[in-house]
Amino acid sequence: MKTLLHTAVLVASMATAITANASLTPASPIADSPLFASIPFEELTLEHMDIRQIIPMPINGLSAIDNAGQVMYASSNGRFVFIGQMYDLWKGGALETMEEIEQASTRIYLDGLQLHPRDLNTVTIGNGPIDITIFTDPLCEHCHALAHEAKAYSDDYTFYFVVVPALGDESHELAQRLHCAENPSEGAEALLNGTINLLATRENCDLEGYEKTLLASEVLGVNGVPFLIHQDGRVNRGRPQHLDQWLQGGR
């Protein structure tokens, strides 16, 4: 798991792997498209583009574009264009259509990283068959409200609240204290009640799990809390306006 996470850090600017080849064989679906049948790739310019859809990728400065029915990839200023196959290493398989690209760009598959939230700095609420992972901060009021709301759905879902220091040094001290709690079973109530600072801690606490949590949050792009990941891969940044609807597949 640690190796996979460190490997993911090395490709964090990608989240997927891109292979591009400008010299296309006649059998290639790219070469067979009407656009490239009439215009050699090396002669392609902006005036030849017929852009029908743009999907920002979870890669800095890169977007997928539907150019007259052909999937291409372009830099943020539209100057550089890549053609080839993109692979989703977290879910597995090539992304060949705009629909597949959009789904991959908006979903996170923890299984692909062999990452389970229970291995992180986590407290658990509920014991339902569907897993919901929520990155939270000890000082985040919206996160606390969400945790209390989640209790109402604890029969149908298992909520893994992964505690990270998103809001500064005090949050770091509290999150680390939770990780080192002498009695981990007290963690959920301490998080809900805002009493992590009162938890007794173990001496010589091993921080490997805490450091793994920080690494995981970086790899997954957790840039704010709460940050929710549904078992089906859907992601929600911020507290859902209607948690019940989001849990069932809505927004």
Please supply descriptive tags for the structure shown above.
251 residues, alpha+beta, Glutaredoxin, 2 domains, 4-stranded antiparallel beta sheet, 9 helices, elongated
Task: Summarize this entry quickly.
The chain is α+β, with helices and mostly antiparallel strands and 251 residues long. Helices cover 29% and strands 22% of the residues.
Structure description:
By secondary structure, this protein is of the alpha+beta class. The chain is built from 9 helices and 12 strands. Strand 6 and strand 7 form a beta hairpin. Helix 1 (2-10) runs parallel beside helix 8. The longest helix has 12 residues, at 208-219. The radius of gyration is 22 Å and the shape is elongated.
Architecture blueprint of SSEs:
Layout: H1 2-10, E1 17-20, H2 29-32, H3 34-38, E2 51-56, E3 62-67, E4 70-75, E5 81-82, E6 84-87, E7 94-95, H4 98-106, E8 122-125, E9 130-136, H5 141-150, E10 157-163, H6 169-179, H7 187-193, H8 208-219, E11 227-230, E12 235-237, H9 243-247
Parallel strand pairs: 9-10
Antiparallel strand pairs: 1-6, 2-3, 3-4, 4-5, 6-7, 8-10, 9-11, 11-12
Let me know the average pLDDT: 85
How many helix segments?
9
CATH topology of the largest domain, by name, is Glutaredoxin
Order of helices and strands: HEHHEEEEEEHEEHEHHHEEH
